[in-house]
């Protein structure tokens, strides 16, 4: 026997028992997008490496060590997309969707990052994301947050997720703050860990995001971005908080929330849960007013978020919030004898015409009645239909109730749909 080839580490199959959970979550997401007037956009899985370097930032974890990049046969450096925002902006610029327009877009699909696989963290994972373009005012920041809150409500997750928000201010305010923060970190260099020392000069704001408990106290006492915000960002943030409060959305301002991608300004937010262990961020996003221009378009304000589908599915399963999974079939058709086996296909097609909402499985592969009924039972169908040579001659079929204690019946094939509807 030859050796089996295994899937790549951190890249999972989604097996038939799990797909109904995914389909359920996807359905809720699609429906909500439809209700809020958002349009779906689809873009390629592979893009030029340069796109992610220029958008996500050269000194971020993603670009420094997580990207799946390779040279294609022409020698171009390509990358399996690690996220969707850069792709969406690239597509929007390329097709003239962004300048001087308002867009509300969403996407869903696989993303790739070479991370250490663990629960809730994989190398191929899936994101649902949305991006809005052309609106600079905080009402749209509030809209995307309210929309995400509705998702939790629809999925029964409201009491298991918490909203954290922060403002990163303008690029200028942030670069001034950056100097203040570096000075503080320099003073306390001796207490910093290796990761933080490395990031201190390249990406000091990320040091604030450190999960190392030994640094918690030091970082809590660090100068805060909130005290260095520019006027415009401070007003924007105040207005957002006001809208959320009036709309009845609970939130916490987390002054250390910075996000791992460079393109954000003003609003950032995360929905976190304590139900999944270390991988607690289910959904994260914010405003990125500079990115469209940075990627070659005309300056266009933008807000968006991305939601980790695996974490959402894990959460739904962990909390037992998945509606009862549907069985595979409603009706299972069987035949005995050569003529009946020929005719059963037409009976099945007739039923499929007459009962388009039913799931109808036709037994294939022959076998005696016992074997066929066993399969029918396993399919989950509630009705078994058995066509024998005698019934065929009379234009009839036997109805066997598989889940009810009812005697079997014989019905005319022409009357069948009426009785089974
Ligand atoms: P984290 O802090 O968990 O690494 P991140 O800041 O890198 O997340 P984003 O790039 O903002 O995450 O992606 C948005 C969401 O996508 C995350 O909140 C998470 O739910 C999901 N996500 C990110 N990376 C992974 C991964 N490797 N596996 C599964 N889901 C992921
Ligand atoms: Mg990450």
From TrEMBL:
L-histidine binds at residues 83-85, 113, 127, 131, 259, 263-264. InterPro entries: aa-tRNA-synth_II, aa-tRNA-synth_II/BPL/LPL, Anticodon-bd, Anticodon-bd_dom_sf, His-tRNA-ligase, HisRS-like_core, HisRS/HisZ, HisRS_anticodon. Coiled coil: none annotated. The keyword 4Fe-4S does not apply. Residues 1-356 form the Aminoacyl-transfer RNA synthetases class-II family profile domain. Keywords: Aminoacyl-tRNA synthetase, ATP-binding, Cytoplasm, Ligase, Nucleotide-binding, Protein biosynthesis. It is found in: Cytoplasm. It comes from the Bacteria. It catalyses: tRNA(His) + L-histidine + ATP = L-histidyl-tRNA(His) + AMP + diphosphate + H(+). Its EC number is 6.1.1.21. One of its GO terms (biological process) is histidyl-tRNA aminoacylation. One of its GO terms (molecular function) is ATP binding. It holds the Pfam family HGTP_anticodon. GO terms for cellular component: cytoplasm. SUPFAM superfamilies: Class II aaRS ABD-related, Class II aaRS and biotin synthetases. Homodimer. Belongs to the class-II aminoacyl-tRNA synthetase family. PANTHER family: HISTIDINE--TRNA LIGASE, MITOCHONDRIAL-RELATED, HISTIDYL-TRNA SYNTHETASE. This is Histidine--tRNA ligase. The lineage of its organism: Bacteria, Pseudomonadati, Pseudomonadota, Gammaproteobacteria, Chromatiales. The gene is hisS.
């Amino acid at each position: 026997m030859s050796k089996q080839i295994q899937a790549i580490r951190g890249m999972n199959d989604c097996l038939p028992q799990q797909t109904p959970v995914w389909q359920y979550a996807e359905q809720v997401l699609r429906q909500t997008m439809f209700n809020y007037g958002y349009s779906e956009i689809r873009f390629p899985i592979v893009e030029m490496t340069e796109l992610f370097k220029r958008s996500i930032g050269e000194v971020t974890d993603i670009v420094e060590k997580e990207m799946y990049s390779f040279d294609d046969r022409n020698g171009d450096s390509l990358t399996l997309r690690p996220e969707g925002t850069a792709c969406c902006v690239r597509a929007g610029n390329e097709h003239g969707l962004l300048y001087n327009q308002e867009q509300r877009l969403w996407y869903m699909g696989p993303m790739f990052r070479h991370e250490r696989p663990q629960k809730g963290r994989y190398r191929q994972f899936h994101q649902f994301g949305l991006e809005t373009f052309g609106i600079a005012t905080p009402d749209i920041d509030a809209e995307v947050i309210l929309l995400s809150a509705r998702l939790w409500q629809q999925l029964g997750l409201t009491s298991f997720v918490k909203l954290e928000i922060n403002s990163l201010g303008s690029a200028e305010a942030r670069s001034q703050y950056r100097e203040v923060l570096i000075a503080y970190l320099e003073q306390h260099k001796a207490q910093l860990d290796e990761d933080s020392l490395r990031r201190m000069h390249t990406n000091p704001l990320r040091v604030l995001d450190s999960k190392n408990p030994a640094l918690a106290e030091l970082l809590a006492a660090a100068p805060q971005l909130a005290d260095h915000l520019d006027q415009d960002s401070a007003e924007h943030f105040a207005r957002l908080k006001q809208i959320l409060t009036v709309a009845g959305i609970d939130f916490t301002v987390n002054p250390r929330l910075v996000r791992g991608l460079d393109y954000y300004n003003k609003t950032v937010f995360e929905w976190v849960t304590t139900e999944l262990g270390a991988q607690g961020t289910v959904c994260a996003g914010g405003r990125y007013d500079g990115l469209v221009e940075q990627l070659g378009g005309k300056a266009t304000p933008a807000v968006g978020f991305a939601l980790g589908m695996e974490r959402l599915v894990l959460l739904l399963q962990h909390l037992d919030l998945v509606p009862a999974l549907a069985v595979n079939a409603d009706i299972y058709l069987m035949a005995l004898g050569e003529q009946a086996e020929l005719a059963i296909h037409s009976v099945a097609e007739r039923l499929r015409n007459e009962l388009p909402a039913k799931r109808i499985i036709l037994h294939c592969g022959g076998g005696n009645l016992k074997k066929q009924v066993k399969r029918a039972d396993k399919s989950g169908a509630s009705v078994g239909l058995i066509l024998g040579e005698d019934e065929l001659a009379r234009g009839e079929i036997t109805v066997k109730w598989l889940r009810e204690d009812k005697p079997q019946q014989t019905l005319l094939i022409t009357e069948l749909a009426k009785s089974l509807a």
